Amino acid sequence: MSTSCLLCERCIDACPLSHMDLKSFLLASKREDYPTRLWNCTNCWKCQEVCPQGIDLWDIKMKDRLRYDPPQAMIQRASHLQTIGCALPISDETNQTREYYNLKPISLLNPELLSQLLE
Protein backbone atom coordinates (compact mmCIF):
# COMPACT_ATOMS: atom_id res chain seq x y z
CA MET A 1 0.00 0.00 0.00
CA SER A 2 1.23 3.48 -0.72
CA THR A 3 2.08 5.42 2.40
CA SER A 4 -0.01 8.29 1.03
CA CYS A 5 -3.25 6.25 0.76
CA LEU A 6 -5.98 7.77 2.93
CA LEU A 7 -8.25 4.69 2.71
CA CYS A 8 -11.04 7.06 1.69
CA GLU A 9 -12.51 4.34 -0.57
CA ARG A 10 -13.22 6.74 -3.44
CA CYS A 11 -11.54 4.20 -5.71
CA ILE A 12 -14.02 1.55 -4.56
CA ASP A 13 -17.00 3.84 -5.17
CA ALA A 14 -15.74 4.67 -8.67
CA CYS A 15 -15.03 1.07 -9.70
CA PRO A 16 -17.59 -0.41 -12.11
CA LEU A 17 -16.62 -3.78 -10.65
CA SER A 18 -16.96 -2.77 -7.03
CA HIS A 19 -16.93 -6.45 -6.11
CA MET A 20 -13.27 -6.33 -7.09
CA ASP A 21 -12.60 -4.98 -3.60
CA LEU A 22 -10.06 -2.27 -4.35
CA LYS A 23 -9.37 -1.82 -0.67
CA SER A 24 -7.92 -5.32 -0.60
CA PHE A 25 -6.08 -4.46 -3.80
CA LEU A 26 -4.55 -1.36 -2.23
CA LEU A 27 -3.61 -3.31 0.86
CA ALA A 28 -1.82 -5.93 -1.28
CA SER A 29 -4.32 -8.52 -0.18
CA LYS A 30 -3.17 -12.06 0.47
CA ARG A 31 -6.68 -13.34 -0.21
CA GLU A 32 -6.79 -16.52 -2.22
CA ASP A 33 -8.94 -14.90 -4.93
CA TYR A 34 -6.78 -11.78 -5.25
CA PRO A 35 -5.15 -12.82 -8.57
CA THR A 36 -8.55 -13.38 -10.20
CA ARG A 37 -9.86 -10.08 -8.89
CA LEU A 38 -6.74 -8.36 -10.16
CA TRP A 39 -7.17 -9.80 -13.66
CA ASN A 40 -10.89 -8.92 -13.73
CA CYS A 41 -10.09 -5.20 -13.64
CA THR A 42 -11.48 -3.45 -16.73
CA ASN A 43 -8.62 -0.92 -16.80
CA CYS A 44 -11.07 1.98 -16.96
CA TRP A 45 -8.77 4.08 -14.73
CA LYS A 46 -11.71 5.47 -12.74
CA CYS A 47 -10.04 4.48 -9.48
CA GLN A 48 -6.93 6.44 -10.36
CA GLU A 49 -8.89 9.45 -11.62
CA VAL A 50 -10.71 9.91 -8.30
CA CYS A 51 -7.76 9.23 -6.00
CA PRO A 52 -7.17 12.45 -4.01
CA GLN A 53 -3.56 11.38 -3.40
CA GLY A 54 -2.79 10.67 -7.08
CA ILE A 55 -1.64 7.12 -6.36
CA ASP A 56 -0.48 5.36 -9.53
CA LEU A 57 -2.87 2.42 -9.29
CA TRP A 58 -2.08 1.39 -12.87
CA ASP A 59 1.56 0.82 -12.00
CA ILE A 60 0.62 -1.14 -8.88
CA LYS A 61 -1.77 -3.36 -10.87
CA MET A 62 0.70 -4.00 -13.67
CA LYS A 63 3.46 -4.97 -11.25
CA ASP A 64 1.09 -7.33 -9.47
CA ARG A 65 -0.07 -8.84 -12.76
CA LEU A 66 3.55 -9.79 -13.47
CA ARG A 67 3.47 -11.83 -10.26
CA TYR A 68 0.31 -13.79 -11.06
CA ASP A 69 -0.76 -15.84 -14.06
CA PRO A 70 -4.11 -14.87 -15.56
CA PRO A 71 -7.07 -17.10 -14.65
CA GLN A 72 -7.61 -20.07 -16.95
CA ALA A 73 -10.95 -18.65 -18.12
CA MET A 74 -9.20 -15.50 -19.35
CA ILE A 75 -6.64 -17.57 -21.25
CA GLN A 76 -9.47 -19.53 -22.87
CA ARG A 77 -11.28 -16.31 -23.89
CA ALA A 78 -8.09 -14.98 -25.46
CA SER A 79 -7.64 -18.25 -27.33
CA HIS A 80 -11.24 -18.12 -28.58
CA LEU A 81 -10.69 -14.55 -29.76
CA GLN A 82 -7.68 -15.62 -31.77
CA THR A 83 -9.31 -18.68 -33.29
CA ILE A 84 -12.99 -17.78 -33.80
CA GLY A 85 -13.13 -14.00 -33.35
CA CYS A 86 -15.35 -14.14 -30.24
CA ALA A 87 -14.37 -14.27 -26.58
CA LEU A 88 -16.87 -17.02 -25.88
CA PRO A 89 -17.69 -19.99 -28.08
CA ILE A 90 -20.89 -19.73 -30.09
CA SER A 91 -23.24 -22.64 -29.64
CA ASP A 92 -26.61 -23.58 -31.05
CA GLU A 93 -28.05 -22.63 -27.67
CA THR A 94 -26.54 -19.14 -28.00
CA ASN A 95 -28.26 -18.60 -31.32
CA GLN A 96 -31.53 -20.09 -30.07
CA THR A 97 -31.50 -17.59 -27.23
CA ARG A 98 -30.79 -14.79 -29.70
CA GLU A 99 -33.62 -15.97 -31.92
CA TYR A 100 -35.98 -15.93 -28.91
CA TYR A 101 -35.14 -12.23 -28.44
CA ASN A 102 -35.51 -11.51 -32.18
CA LEU A 103 -31.77 -11.03 -32.65
CA LYS A 104 -29.81 -12.18 -35.65
CA PRO A 105 -27.72 -15.32 -35.18
CA ILE A 106 -24.01 -14.92 -34.62
CA SER A 107 -21.77 -16.48 -37.21
CA LEU A 108 -18.07 -17.09 -36.96
CA LEU A 109 -15.66 -14.77 -38.68
CA ASN A 110 -13.93 -15.97 -41.78
CA PRO A 111 -10.62 -17.46 -40.49
CA GLU A 112 -8.61 -15.66 -43.21
CA LEU A 113 -10.20 -12.32 -42.31
CA LEU A 114 -9.57 -12.96 -38.63
CA SER A 115 -5.91 -13.74 -39.37
CA GLN A 116 -5.57 -10.46 -41.28
CA LEU A 117 -7.19 -8.49 -38.46
CA LEU A 118 -4.77 -9.95 -35.92
CA GLU A 119 -1.67 -9.13 -37.95
Summarize the structure in words.
This protein has helices at 10-14, 22-26, 34-40, 46-50, 57-67, 72-84, 92-100, 111-118. The protein is an all-alpha fold and 119 residues long. It has 8 helices and no strands. It is elongated and about 50 Å long. Helix content is 53%, strand content 0%.
Identify the notable features of this structure and list them briefly.
mainly alpha, 8 helices, elongated, 119 residues, 2 domains
Sheet/helix structural class: mainly alpha
Poorly predicted regions? none
Output mean pLDDT.
Answer: 79
Series of H and E elements: HHHHHHHH
Q: Which word captures the global form?
A: elongated
Cα separation of the termini: 39 Å
From the alpha-carbon coordinates, what is the Rg to the nearest angstrom?
A: 19 Å
Number of domains: 2
Task: Write a brief caption for the model.
The chain has 119 residues and is mainly α. The chain has eight helices and no strands.
Reconstruct the topology from this structure.
Elements: H1 10-14, H2 22-26, H3 34-40, H4 46-50, H5 57-67, H6 72-84, H7 92-100, H8 111-118
